[in-house]
Amino acid sequence: MKELQTYINKQEKWAGGILGLSVRSADTGDIYLSHNGDIRLHPASNLKILTAVAALRILGPDYRFSTEIRLDGKLVDDVWEGDVYIVGKGDPTLQLKDYQKFAATLHNYGIRTITGSIYGDDTWYDDKRLSEDLIWTDEQYYYGAEVSALTISPDKDYDTGSVKIIIQPGQLGESPQYQLYPNTSYITLENHAVTVAQAEEEELCITREHGGNRIYIRGNIGIDHEVRQEWMAVWKVTDYVMDIFIETLNEMGITIKGKPKSGKSVPNETMCIHKHSSPTLAEILVPFMKLSNNGIGEMLVKEMGRFVYEEATWDAGLKVVREQIQTYGVNMETVQIKDGSGISHSNLLPANELSKLLYRIQPEEWFPLLLDTLPVAGEQNRMVGGTLRERMKGLSVKAKTGTIEGVSTLSGYINMETKQRVIFSILLNNLIDEEIGKEIEDEIVAYLHTQDIAKV
């Protein structure tokens, strides 16, 4: 550890910033090195470790979310005289194909016309869509998308409440071509970009208006540029789902006479004709942790609040997280948790407390599952390497990454060359360039990987 301590003492890369570092034995829990280990720092997405642990304890690895199709009325020939309800219960994995299946269910039931309305029931969670500490400029991007019990993801990464934009160069001097997925009229896209002979990637800018669904493509794209994909959050996500579902029903040959409505709780006397189940929590935790999916984290918080306190709010869910983490001896008096994803700059957590949690969860029956959800250094498969797939190749590291403005973090487990196993937590704050933090983390882990802890 002397070499690492020398590195820390001489390091200038984080000049003006703060490094919190905790290194402890995975076998005994003894701390080998602590540098500002008891200082509260922003954990960024390392906070997802706490959310995942609480969810595994409360909901369990086999937990599934559900979505229901319910009917209120009667079928006369091929006319449904009444209303149709799609009831969301927090499934973060719903995609266009699932809504197509829901539409097919109604079609197979014999319905060709609905005289009433299609209701989107999202009341399983409260109507607070954005966490209170979310920076307003982040709400336009997929990682800051709204949280609703009835949502949709454009891909298997489960980026809830977002739309995927695929952009490719056009002819020289012309606008680039684009596609939306799902292809929806709910979004208005203004394309002001130009195809040029040569351009840097950052010259093409995609933004969304604040509090609306007008998306702008501006700047330049090089004519030889590869296809670019961006994911943008959608405003009023339940209405977005309803718009897509109505379009899907129309494509299926079903006509709706009434206007779509959202937010209404389904009446008790309705008939359930279809219940869709999500993948298990164990499966959902893979993109949550590997790809650092914020939307899943916030939905898990609300789900735990409802499960324990019958109150699907951030306040109730975060209370559950705190209670569960405290059972491992984490000093909650020095911890502040404001969301389930770590996007808040108000989250505070000392490195020593995080490494303590990583040590004390090891005897849990579900620990091997959680360990496998952590990104694996240097593994190119996205659902294995995740956010570490391009980093620390050749090192045996499983760890959670974290990045918000001015913050870079990394916490997890190292299998060392000496066959020892070490737990570490690196929290870098107040950085001018958080990408420098990745370099520092990799260098620290490289030092740790070759240390003989027994001789420290």
List the helices and strands and how they pair.
Blueprint: H1 2-10, E1 18-25, E2 31-35, H2 48-58, E3 66-76, E4 79-88, H3 96-108, E5 113-114, E6 118-121, E7 162-168, E8 177-181, E9 188-191, E10 194-196, E11 204-208, E12 214-222, E13 228-233, H4 237-251, E14 255-256, E15 261-262, E16 271-277, H5 281-290, H6 294-309, H7 314-326, H8 351-360, H9 367-373, H10 382-385, E17 396-404, E18 407-415, E19 421-429, H11 434-449
Parallel strand pairs: 4-5, 4-6, 5-14, 6-15, 9-12, 10-12
Antiparallel strand pairs: 1-2, 1-19, 3-4, 3-16, 7-8, 7-13, 11-12, 17-18, 18-19
Helix pairs in contact: 2-5, 2-6, 2-7, 3-4, 5-9, 6-7
Task: Describe, in plain words, how this protein is organized in 3D.
With 456 residues, the protein is an alpha/beta fold. The strands form 4 sheets. Strands 3, 4, 5, 6, 14, 15 and 16 form a 7-stranded mixed beta sheet that branches. The chain has a 5-stranded antiparallel beta sheet with strand order 2-1-19-18-17, sandwiched between helices. Strands 9, 10, 11 and 12 form a 4-stranded mixed beta sheet that branches. Helix 2 runs parallel beside helix 6 and helix 3 crosses helix 4. The longest helix has 16 residues. The relative contact order is 0.19. The model has no long low-confidence stretch (mean pLDDT 95).
Labels describing this entry:
single chain; 456 residues; seven-stranded mixed β-sheet; five-stranded antiparallel β-sheet; 19 strands
**Low-pLDDT sequence parts:** none
Shape: globular
What is the percentage of strand-forming residues?
25-35%
Q: Main sheet?
A: 7 strands, mixed
DSSP summary, beta strand count: 19
Mean pLDDT: 95
Radius of gyration over all CA atoms, rounded:
24 Å
Q: Which range best describes the helical content: under 10%, 10-25%, 25-40%, 40-55%, 55-70% or over 70%?
A: 25-40%
The structural class is alpha/beta
